[in-house]
Amino acid sequence: MAGLDKRVSSYEEALAGLEDGMTVLAGGFGLCGIPENLIAEIRRRGVKDLTVVSNNCGVDGFGLGVLLEDRQIRKMIASYVGENALFEQQLLNGELEVELTPQGTLAEKMRAGGAGIPAFYTATGYGTPVAEGKEVREIDGRHYILEHAIRGDFAIVKGWKADHFGNVVYRHTAQNFNPLAATAGKITVVEVEEIVEPGELEPSQIHTPGIYVDRIIQGSFEKRIEKRTLRD
């Protein structure tokens, strides 16, 4: 059983093998459920020319936004730009290649990649610039465009709890894109708030089975709130 233990003791070990030019899938939505310490380690390593796939690119100064500051991202595949002024600036200046993808399509691209499905048809985006250059097929009188699955060299994921074998549970809305990203990385690294002994997780509550996970590390998290809203 010891050979199944996927715990690592440092963030340097967690991202061992990450190199320039790789594709990284990142879980999270806004600042909710982001693998903030793994992102910090990518920044510390100084790898460049990355293609990053995530719902958005964090905010100025936090989350994936810190990788923009050091010009480490060459291409961003995302569904949303709006909360990051540097992201917008680099896009408009032509410094950053951006592939905007409808949110549901992006989620399905990751899910398909993890399921071994190379491509799928969707009606989303037909008749818009999203469909330009893509195969179109009519099925039962409706038009669909062919979208290709996404896989990454690394997937970085934020969980709540995990056991030694890499079985992961997410907490509430922090689940978001994390389980999708977790399935689609050649190497999947999950950072969690707590690592428990094998057998402590209720099997029916596990969101990502350990078969998808290569490395687990326990960290502490700032959990910054993106937009704090208070009643008068």
From TrEMBL:
Family that this chain belongs to: Belongs to the 3-oxoacid CoA-transferase subunit A family.
Pathway it works in: Aromatic compound metabolism; beta-ketoadipate pathway; acetyl-CoA and succinyl-CoA from 3-oxoadipate: step 1/2
Name of this protein: 3-oxoadipate CoA-transferase
EC number: 2.8.3.6
NCBIfam families the record matches: pcaI_scoA_fam
Gene Ontology terms describing biological process: beta-ketoadipate pathway
Keywords: Transferase
GO MF term (any one): 3-oxoadipate CoA-transferase activity
Catalytic activity: 3-oxoadipate + succinyl-CoA = 3-oxoadipyl-CoA + succinate
A Pfam family annotated for this UniProt entry: CoA_trans
Origin species: Pseudomonas saudiphocaensis
